[in-house]
């Protein structure tokens, strides 16, 4: 357990051990989530990434994408349809 003091401006310094656990660094954003009778501090970037992963879950299977080569081929097909020049190599 770590302790932080609130300044007169409402600021706190997050202890280094907590920053390491959250995987945050200078400039990153922290998300505060109300979880019943407690507030949970989370790495906002990781939450956004998790939400995107959940939103796209199953899409690769629907598009028959199994590996990086499938993704490259799909990008080439889309760009060819749009008349764009692109090299994936």
Write the layout of secondary structure elements.
Blueprint: H1 16-22, E1 30-35, E2 38-43, H2 44-55, H3 59-62, H4 68-82
Antiparallel strand pairs: 1-2
Written description of the protein model:
The protein is α+β, with helices and mostly antiparallel strands. It has a domain of 55 residues. 43% of the residues lie in helices and 13% in strands. Strands 1-2 form a two-stranded antiparallel ribbon. The longest helix is centred in the last third of the chain and has 15 residues. It is elongated and about 60 Å long. The N and C termini lie far apart (49 Å). The relative contact order is 0.08.
Feature tags:
single chain; 89 residues; alpha+beta; two-stranded antiparallel sheet; 2 strands; elongated
**Could you give a short account of the major beta sheet?**
2 strands, antiparallel
How many E strands? 2
- Helix/strand-derived category reads alpha+beta
**Spatial gap, N to C terminus:** 49 Å
**Elements, N to C (H/E):** HEEHHH
Low-confidence stretches: none
> Which radius of gyration do the C-alpha atoms yield?
21 Å
> What general outline do the C-alpha atoms trace?
elongated
Strands of the widest sheet, in order across it, are 1-2
Helix percentage range = 40-55%
Strand content: 5-15%
Q: Kindly state the mean pLDDT as a whole number?
A: 87
Tally of alpha and pi helices? 4
